[in-house]
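Holo model, adenosine-5'-diphosphate. Inputs:
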Amino acid sequence: MLIMTLIVLLFVIVVNNSSVANDPTDSLVDAVMANASKLVYSDGTFSWNNIDLYKRGVYCSVYSIDGTELVGAFPSEEHFTLDFRSGMVRSITVDGAKYLVFDIYTDYEGGGVWIRGIISPYDQSEIIKELLALTYTLLPVLIVFSIVGGWLVACSAFRPVEKIVNSADSISSGSDLSARIKLKRGPSEMKHLAAAFNRMLERLEQSFEAEKNFTSAASHELRTPITVILAECDRAKRKCSTKEDFLESVNAIEYQSRNMGELVQQMLSLSRLQYGAEKYPMRVSSLSEFIDACTDEFFIDNDKSITIRKEIAPDVSAKYNPDLFSRVIMNLLQNAYKYGNENGNITVKLSADKAKNYAVLCVQDDGIGISEENLDKIWLRFWQADPSRGVSGGSGLGLALVKEITDLHNGTVAVESTEGVGSTFTVSIPMK
Ligand code: ADP
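Output:
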């Protein structure tokens, strides 16, 4: 504002100086004399085609010797009727307006003409003088107004920012992540900013909550095997008198350690998947052969004498990470085996859904099944059905991992189950 004001001020001063420097009397006389020299007289007649009827505020007109107007321009609509006086600048007032008048008589052999110049001195310098006076008084006021106004506008624009900063400060210092920034009034940009902050806080709150739940569930899960291990150690030290007693305790410790190892492994895989800590290269290869091999490998030990059926369509290929996808197959088979009946049946099916271009893997068992109200919960981390169902082992992370891995493969996972009848888990991933 200050720079703009100074430029305008400079401009006004320059214009004013140049017009003041041009004295109106001089301009008037110069213009009339110039026009007199431009008059052409030939063959007894005057020609005034070259003269300037208006130039730099001076109006010029040409009269015959008897005072008849031949050509001319005037500052007002009324043409002056004023007697001629050659070579003399006169000041007159017409309808309250001041003018300077200068006449000159040009004499030639055959006669002569009057050239009259009229200038309004008021037009030239008075207006600019007044303009300058106005500028000198108005500009400082304008500057003060713009400074005060700008300051007020900036203050009101930054008030919501201050509010956001205060709210963010109070949230971070109070460790209450459920608090939100409330901005009722303010420009829409600030409301958007506050909304973005709130969304960020919501995500933070969710991830802190998930982290808290995960940690407390993990420590709860680890506490049981550790308690068992400590108790077995204590028993071995105090009560085991024979080698057999001692081996029994070692076996119990080994079993619990294996469970803990599996739990830690599952937790690690889950967090790596969730935070993208590792790259899992995907490659296109035969899913039929892979599932066949995994199933054979899993059922090397089949203590429950379960009958395995394989209905694996040949030549089904997909883009997958073998390390990860083997965990999907193993976890589903492990559950089908764990929750399946002695001498029961497990069917492993692989088919190609050509319409949707999906490879579909089904693992079906006729075991204890899952009650309807628990069907949604089985995908949650650390969730296990009532332990009174008598199946020991497991961490409650197996299916959460299956879901996470399937998501990574842009696939879907679903379950159909009836309590006491059996369950079918279906995993679909896009084919090659
Ligand atoms: P877990 O380590 O307990 O098997 P999972 O995440 O693999 O953990 O499974 C979660 C729960 O879902 C299990 O505790 C079990 O109650 C239920 N479940 C999973 N698969 C089956 C199945 N094939 N039949 C019956 N219940 C199952």
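The radius of gyration is 51 Å. The pocket of adenosine-5'-diphosphate is lined by residues 331, 335-336, 339, 365, 367-370, 378, 383-385, 394-400, 423 (CB under 6 Å).
Archived with the compound record.
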